[in-house]
Design a protein that fits this description.
Blueprint: H1 3-7, H2 22-31, H3 37-49, E1 51-54, H4 60-75, E2 82-85, E3 88-91, E4 102-104, H5 113-117, H6 120-130, E5 134-142, E6 166-171, E7 182-184, H7 207-224, E8 229-230, E9 238-242, E10 247-249, E11 261-268, E12 282-285, E13 291-294, H8 297-302, H9 309-312, E14 318-319, H10 321-325, H11 329-332, H12 336-353, H13 360-363
Parallel strand pairs: 5-13
Antiparallel strand pairs: 1-9, 2-3, 2-4, 4-5, 5-11, 6-9, 6-11, 7-8, 7-10, 12-13, 12-14
Helix pairs in contact: 2-3
Bound molecules: 2-oxoglutaric acid.
Length: 365
């Protein structure tokens, strides 16, 4: 057994909250007044159960503004806005208004995105587990429940530090019973780690291997008596979950209901997603704290337009850190199946943007 395996539950290391001695660290830090009592309680809960619920943390006025922006986007979408529907990436279109569609990174065109994604208590908690500033690398905004089967995010959303992945789910309205509530299995992050083909943290597009990992994880949860819980959230409540926590959306029993929600997928500053070629993306700092990846990387290639809404909504600092930071060797080390998936994604994306020529440099690497 390697030193890392002794120190961490995962063979891929993790945050300090993933260490086997996390409770000792927490106790020592609490005693040194690094955290207040409420912090200690939340952090201990996160270590043991792999999630925390922060009630009424988001400003309702900001949520209402975001919902108005979301509503308007169906008829007049911001440039390049896309959605996921039925496993496909498609341009935003009102045809999907009443469907189970996930709208990607709408926050980039929203003036108050920093306030929405990083309410004070959310920012505090993320900064405590990361010990670095948090970065939202992707958001998904939904009108309806996803009916997504229980899964773990570390499988599709690979990062240079795979175990630093965290999700946040915000209720944009009070959740109604039967609306396809967000579900999760407390403690499922802590069962014996299951890897794809016994080796990979990410599934790299191999859905059969992903299914095997989920099935094995669920069996381990059953053996431990870990049960599915439902998040009956009120507007403005946020649930933050560990990348290895099983979660998903319950079946929709009442199709007349909406379940407006916002997911952010997060990592610490300095980490890099590897499930997609983000090497041209910049990072935007929000005035109140926290960052986002600017996924309008095509704009970065062409030169950012300072009048862009997304740029105006930040404090104006757009850094090329991302591009400079990524070692060029990284892209040469990806497995063939991962590279194939990247190319497939690039093709889908390029059909959306009709700018295929922008990607020739990746293919050449
Ligand atoms: O909001 C939900 O229903 C869960 C969605 C989810 O986990 C996902 O999009 O990966």
């Amino acid at each position: 057994m390697s030193v890392d395996e002794l120190l961490y539950r995962s063979r891929f290391g993790g945050l300090w909250t993933d260490r086997r001695d996390a409770h000792d660290l927490l106790e020592a830090r609490g005693a040194a007044n690094a955290y207040n009592d409420a912090d200690v309680e939340l952090l201990a809960h996160y270590i043991d159960h792999g999630y925390v619920i922060l009630k009424k943390v988001a400003d309702r006025a900001v949520i209402d503004e975001y919902l108005a922006h979301f509503e308007a986007a169906w008829d007049d979408p911001p440039e390049r806005l896309w959605l996921q529907w039925n496993q496909q990436g498609l341009p935003m279109d009102r045809r999907f208004y009443d469907e189970m569609a996930k709208v990607g990174s709408l926050h980039l065109s929203f003036d108050r995105a920093g306030e929405l994604l990083f309410p004070r208590r959310v920012l505090r908690f993320l900064t405590q587990i990361y010990e670095r500033p948090p970065v939202a690398f992707q958001t998904l905004t939904m009108r309806k429940g996803s009916e997504e089967t229980l899964h773990i995010d570390t499988a599709p959303l690979t990062l240079t530090e795979p175990m630093s992945l965290v999700g946040s789910w915000m209720a944009l309205e009070d959740v109604q019973p039967g609306s396809g509530e967000f579900q999760y299995i407390p403690g499922s992050h802590g069962v014996l780690e299951q890897l794809h083909h016994g080796t990979y943290k990410g599934h790299n597009g191999d859905h059969r291997a992903a299914h095997e990992v989920i099935t094995a994880k669920r069996r381990l949860c059953d053996e431990r008596g870990l049960d599915v819980q439902t998040f009956m959230a009120k507007k403005g409540d946020v649930l933050i979950w560990h990348g290895d926590l099983l979660h998903g959306g319950a079946p929709i029993e009442d199709s007349t209901t909406t379940r407006k929600s916002l997911i952010a997928h997060l990592m610490p500053l300095g980490v890099m997603p590897t499930f997609f070629d983000f090497s041209h993306a910049g990072v935007i700092a929000y005035a109140g704290g926290g960052y986002t990846i600017d996924t309008h990387w095509a704009d970065m290639l062409l030169g950012p337009d300072p009048t862009n809404e997304w740029l105006a909504s930040s404090d104006g600092r757009v850094t090329k850190l991302w591009r400079d930071w990524v070692p060029l060797s990284l892209r040469r080390r990806v497995s063939p199946s991962f590279a194939a998936r990247v190319r497939q994604n690039i093709f889908i994306r390029s059909r959306l943007t009709r700018r295929r020529t922008l990607f020739h440099d990746y293919k050449g690497s």
